[in-house]
Amino acid sequence: MNIQSIFKKLGPGLVTGAADDDPSGIATYSQAGAQFGPTLLWTLVLTYPLMSAVQLISARVGRVTGSGLARNLRRVMPRWAVAILVALLFIANTINIGADLAAMGESAQLVVGRGEHVFTIVFAVASLLLQMFVPYRRYANFLKWLTLVLAAYIALVFMVKVDWIAAARGMVVPTIAGTAAATTIVAIFGTTISPFLFFWQASQEVEEVGQRDRRQPLVDVPEQGPKALSRIRYDTFGGMAISNIVGLAIMLGTAATLHAAGKTDIQTAADAAKALEPVAGKLAFALFSLGIIGTGLLAVPVLAGSAGYAIGETFDWNTGLEEKPRDAKAFYVVIAVAMMLGIGIDWSPIDPIRALFWSAVVNGVVAVPILIGTMLVASRKAVMGEFTAGLVLKIFGWLTTAVMAAAVIGMAVFPG
C-alpha cells in the first residue's frame, strides 16, 4: 500500500492530530526534553488513549448528527452557557494563534536572517486567504499533505545520539521530580488535549458529509454506519498516533541534545531551534526551524477555523470552509478577526510566554464542561440514535474528563 492510498483513508483525524503539534506544543515538548531529559516521555504514552477517545467521540457526534459540536452542546446546555464557553475558546485560540505566528516569524528569521514581523504577517494573510478562497475539498487535501512536515522531527531523532534504554524507561516508568516537573506535566496534558481540536474534528466530519460517496448523517442513513465508523476509528487512531509519536520525537531529540549539553532554559520553539545549532549541527537546526513553520501553517487555520465553527454553530450562522465568503460572512469574519488579533499579539508588548500560560489555563477550564457536555450528547439515544458511544468509549471519555479536571486543579496548585 503506497502513501497516496493510505492518505485517502485518512482525513479529519490526521489533520487534527498533526495540528496538535503546533509551535506552542513544540515549545512545551522541547521544554520537557531540555529540562527533564527522557523522564517525562510516559506522559505522551498515557495521553494517547485519552486523546484518541475524546477525538473519536467528537468525530462520531459530527458524523452521526451532521452538526458540529457547539450545535450539539446546545441540546444539553443552555445557549448562554455554550456562548460563554465558545467565547473563552475564541480568546484562548487567539492567544495561541498569536504565539504560533510569532514562532513561525522568528523561525523564518533564523533561517533567512531577517524579516520576523514581515514573515508573521505573510503567514497569517496566506493562511486566511487559503481558508476563504480555496474550496474545502482542495483545502483539506492541502492540509493532509502538509502533515508530512512532521517527518522532520522524526528524522531529528535519527540524527542525534539517543540513550534508548533511558528512553524506554522514561516511556514506561512515571516520574515526577518536583514542582517544576509537575507544572510541565500539566502543560503537556493541556497542549495535547485541547478544546479547539474537539470542535475542529467534529466540524470536519460535518464538512465531509455530502462531499464523498453520497455521505449523509448516520441518523438518516444508519446503513452507512459500519463503514463510516470504521473509517473514523482508522483515521483518528492513526492521526493521534502520529501526533504523539512526533511529540515523543521532539522530547527525545531535545533530551539527547539540549538536556545532555545542559541547555535547559527553553521558552519557545524558536529558542529550541537556536539552541540546537551549536549542539546538533546546522541540518538539525534547519529541520527544526522549517518544522515550526510547517506545523504553524497547519495549526493556525485549525485554531481560527475551530473558533469560526464554534461561534457560528452557537448562533445558527451558516458555517463551513466549503461555503463561499459571501454565503457565510459572519463565519469568515470570526476567522479573520482571530487571525488579525493574533498578529496584534505579535506586535504588542504582551509577554507571549505568559499569554500562552493563561491560554492553557483557559483551555483547561473550558475543556471540562465541554467534555461533560460532549459525553452527555454521545450517550443520548434521542440525539445519536443507534450510534450512542459504547461502554469502552464512555469509560475512556469520562476518564479523560477526570484527567482534565485534575489538570485544572494542577494548574492552580502549580501555577508556573
Secondary structure class reads mainly alpha
- Mind telling me the C-alpha Rg? 20 Å
Largest beta sheet, briefly? none
The low-pLDDT segments are none
Shape: globular
Overall pLDDT score: 85
Distance between the termini: 46 Å
Fill in the keyword field for this structure.
mainly alpha
Descriptive account of the structure:
- There is one protein chain.
- This protein has 416 residues and is mainly α.
- Helix 3 crosses helix 13.
- The chain starts with a helix and ends with a helix.
Quick overview of this protein structure:
Helices cover 77% and strands 0% of the residues. The chain has 416 residues and is mainly alpha-helical. The chain is globular.
Task: Tell me the layout of helices and strands.
Blueprint: H1 3-9, H2 12-19, H3 23-36, H4 42-65, H5 69-73, H6 79-112, H7 116-133, H8 136-146, H9 151-157, H10 164-172, H11 179-192, H12 195-208, H13 225-259, H14 269-280, H15 282-314, H16 329-347, H17 352-379, H18 381-384, H19 391-413
Helix pairs in contact: 2-12, 2-13, 2-15, 3-11, 3-13, 3-14, 4-11, 4-12, 4-13, 4-17, 4-19, 6-7, 6-14, 6-15, 6-16, 6-17, 7-15, 7-16, 9-13, 9-15, 11-19, 12-15, 14-15, 15-16, 17-19
